[in-house]
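4.2 Preliminary Data

To establish feasibility before requesting continued support, the project team ran the inverse folding procedure on a target of 252 residues. The structure was first converted into the token representation described in Section 3, and no sequence information of any kind was made available to the design step. The complete token record follows.
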């Protein structure tokens, strides 16, 4: 009998482990935080542009505390939740929110259409959802480096991701009255592959795939390091990019 369950692309245990490790690294004070900082800044710009003034707001994901403080200063009653503290693929325990902001929390759910439906249902009348995540086309230099490392037998090491066109379709499928999906680029400069990977690890951005790829061999890692720097500038720096997908949906 065929199962109606979505495929288990991501592992809950691996997501929990990488999030716990990221929290430990962030406590050191010198860990990279460029992604949550950028997501919060972008979310605030959108909230200001739309002149949103929700009575109640739910903020999920990295950087949620900072965004929550800003919304509270604007008069909102805010609930902040780490992704692991709320099941994004189940009905939410509370509803009636005027605003739900998801910061990098939905890109590792196995049932993304279902997760969007649960967020729509948790909104009150006229409520707005803003969901940002790492989108399709991200980390091209890292992807090329890993392909060079694996040679003729490439392993799945990076997450599948959604582009803006698919994002709009997902919002429509989830039943949002109006839908907007767009993407923007975050550009970073690195002098080594190892530093990039360390920054991804400290922000909980390493692999959470259910099917673990085999570890790189020593020679494979050297090939990856060399391939990463092939297009370095005269200062030995490589421009790596993340394409951030932001989906905005309005409740009836």
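Position-by-position output of the design step:
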């Amino acid at each position: 009998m065929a199962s109606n369950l979505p495929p288990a692309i991501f592992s809950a245990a691996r997501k929990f482990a990488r999030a716990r490790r990221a929290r430990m690294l962030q406590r050191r004070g010198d860990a990279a935080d460029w992604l949550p900082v950028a997501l919060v800044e972008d979310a605030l710009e959108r909230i200001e542009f739309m002149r949103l003034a929700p009575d109640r707001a739910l903020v999920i994901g990295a950087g949620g505390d900072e965004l929550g403080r800003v919304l509270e200063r604007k008069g909102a009653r805010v609930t902040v939740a780490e992704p692991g503290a709320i099941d994004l693929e189940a009905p939410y325990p509370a509803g009636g929110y005027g605003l739900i902001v998801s910061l990098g929390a939905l890109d590792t759910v196995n049932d993304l259409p279902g997760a969007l439906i649960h967020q729509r249902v948790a909104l009150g009348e006229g409520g707005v959802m803003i969901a940002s995540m790492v989108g399709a086309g991200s980390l091209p230099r890292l992807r090329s480096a890993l392909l060079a490392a694996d040679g003729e037998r490439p392993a799945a090491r990076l997450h599948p991701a959604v582009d803006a066109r698919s994002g709009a379709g997902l919002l429509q499928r989830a039943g949002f009255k109006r839908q907007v999906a767009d993407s923007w680029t975050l550009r970073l400069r690195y002098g080594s592959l190892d530093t990039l990977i360390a920054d991804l690890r400290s922000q909980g951005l390493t692999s959470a795939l259910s099917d673990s790829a085999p570890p790189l061999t020593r020679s494979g890692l050297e090939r990856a390091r060399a391939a990463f720097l092939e297009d370095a500038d005269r200062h030995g720096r490589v421009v790596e990019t993340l394409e951030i997908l932001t989906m905005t949906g309005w409740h009836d």
